[in-house]
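Hi R.,

Here's the chain you asked about this morning:
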Amino acid sequence: MSAATMLGASGGAGSSPNSQEMDMSDGKSILGFLKTLGRQPDDMLRFFDRKEYYVLQGRDADTVAVEYFKSSACVKYWGSGESAQPYLSVNHKMGAQIIRKALLEQRRRVEIYKMERGTQWILDKRGSPGNLQAFDEDLGLAHDTSPVLVSVRLGKTAGSKGYAGNQTLVGVAFIDCSARTVRAAEFEDDEHLSTLESLVCQQGTRECLLPAELTGPERKNLEDLMELCEVPSSVGKKGTFTAKDAEQDLRRLLGSQELHGRVFESAQGLALSAICAMIKYLDLLANVETHGQWSLDWVDSSQFMRLDSGAMRALSVEPQPGESDKNASLLGIFSQCKTAMGARLVRKWLKQPLLSRFDLEERLDLVETFARGFELRDLLRSEVLPKMGSDLDKLCRKFAAHKATLQDVVMLYHFVLQLPNLLSVLRNHDASSEREAALLKKRFTEPLHTAHHNFSKFCALVDAAVDISAAARHEYVLLPHFNAELAAADEAKEEVREKIEAHHEELRSLFGLDEKTLKLEQAAGFGYVLRVSRKDEQRIRNNSKVKGLTMLSTKKEGVLFRDRVLSSLAEEYSELCAAYDTAQRDIVGKVLDTTSTFCPVVSDCQTLIAELDVLLCFAHVSVSAPEPYVRPKLVPPEDALQRIVLRGCRHPCVERMESVDAFIKNDIELVRGESSMQIVTGPNMGGKSTYIRSAGVNVLLAQVGCFVACDEAEISITDSILARVGAGDCQSRGVSTFMAEMLETATILKGATARSLVIIDELGRGTSTYDGFGLAWAISEHLATTCGCACLFATHFQELTELAEKHPMIVNRHVSAHIEDGEMTMLYRVEDGPSDQSFGINVAEVAKFPTSVVDAAKRKLAELEDYSGFLSSESATKTRRALTAEEHAEGMNLVRTFLNDFSSLPLEGLSDVEASAALSRLQNELSASSNPIIVALCAANSEG
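And the predicted structure, written out as tokens:
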């Protein structure tokens, strides 16, 4: 649809851009008000609601014109000459689309102002990426959207109760306005704020609030971290992060006279001030209707596997911006839940893998039950859960905020009516063992039975008070027996409705159409209407016996119309319905208040249905994959031989891609002390990245409680997955490719433990070959020996394969390729040992490089092979073998000493001159040696 049809004041189908001209008085009113607001943040759009359309002024008008309509032609001006001010008017429908895109995709903030009493502009709605409450119903948000805000305050452990040393102390508060939950934490962190990064990613954070008092490097570090996590940050007003009125504010929100003792007794002052900052920033106390509806929990970072932003991207947990292929991410593959509650929970589980073996085994037991029980799984997914489609979480919020209607009562009633069917299916399942039956009973059957029993009084209330038969006609009213006024209004409504139905029969007979072709229905905004297919429309128009024919709407499904008689009857019926609503208002209020007391039971059901839905989804995806997933065996923590062994391992996303005919499976063995680190070499496009990521993805799936894409799997529970993949510049942060590599790698070195899984792909490409190799050597050696973590290290540095000769826990593997008659075929098989060549020139030939360029590359390679004493070519290997064992050992030791000395230089604390001098000193010390390997290296370096 063009901008011309979407712009304009009236919003009619044929309205032109800015068909609504604004006079100078309107412009002066808005401009004068904007001056009182002060400087507008760069990421904010301000809309002025003129009842029938929105107006955007100045910079906002230009932004919307260029970014949304791709043209500035629709912008008009107040005034003339240099004082002219741009403005843009858009109808409400288009305005809603702009607001939705601004909040959800571009992560902007939005404010809408309206005129009060025709004289003064006031704030009507305010929204941000993490706070969508004001626009929840207007935007029709996705059912799996649950935005979270975070406030962060930094401190030091020195002088803080319960801490020692002088480390960074972090206090955070995560606010979910949709679920009305506050989650807080206070913890020590490293200088890279690794734990904070992991929490921000795993909590689904969309916006961050920082203290105004935070300045300098600490402020810059936090802003950079949030940018890395793609979370926009803003700064609160001075004094926002104070806990002065914390206790009374929390008591209002939580509705409890007995706050959790940890809030105040543990003296977690930073976390408490972060909570108070969010209360003030969102003005939560102003909404009295939600007082007592909030909950407070404490986040325990040790409960979940740590995933930083690099790991989330490397493992494709969520789709990347602009990604249309649902199979390109884990969330896309597992977005097969049948309820809105399940869709939200599966997103949460994928970001929060568990560390508890007991909890994981229970999830896996249930997934196995549903995977084997086809009939049970099919009944629940195809017949039971779709009929329980009410979003219970949304219903709870509406009742808690006193915004619910009788329609919501009926929706909850229909949900409760489906519980016996769900219970029947679960109870009738023929369990394969007593243990399986007991687990289903404990996790679902018994809790759901209790909930159904607790709903008995609610059902009795609805049966006695609500006209369920009218609800079938989308009329949500009370039964008329409550008083004489309702009874009389109901009788009048029934009489008119009978006349409407009789008139419908007359028109069917007149037009010669059956009931399926000429339908009587109620349409939003019109009331009773007749609908006919578009092909039969002319038969209606051409009938001269129909008086006062009015075509109301033409849509794909048909044409809505009324004649004079039906218009009169429909108007009369609408008036009677309005009178009925007025008469029942007080009683409806009591019904809604009573229904709201069942919210705790509804919340319990919401949790149960969501978990059931996600576990069924896990089972469905596992059995419907191109090749079925298998249950992983979780290695007990007391087992001395901690390991990750994946037989026939596949990448769940790659194997589903249309371009992949048959995925080549590979084995991965990471055994502590034996093969905990793999150095993976081989040609580009050979499958190195897919191979190492497959391990991370399958470990992640195992620790969310799902089956894995393998033939067989043994997995020791890992406390974190850390990844360094890709080499893009971070230009917005002023960071080069190499610096981005070093920052991410430093985080890995600080955060990795013996229970971590580290994935590194092509480290060291952002600098010179020798610098990159030196760093790659030192980092891989540190991870293998000092850290002792499981690690997959894909590299083009053939020389790294020599680490396997030095350390027994390092093994070499390579991706294979076949070359014949100048043609190279990727085999995608990963085999033992290092790659015997790099295939770089062969890849260039496959990519159709000019022949002259390829020939020049081959000549240069031959020259370099004459110099190099340790390149892994055949000629270089012969040269190396000609050396004595003592010369070879001495040369390798000198190289390692140089690389270790270089990697230990405090480069971040040295100036360019000092760093250059230190490097020259190391080079001079090395070049002083007469060892043949060193001489060859220095000669190659001087020639290069």
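The longest strand covers residues 810-820.

Let me know if you need anything else.
M.
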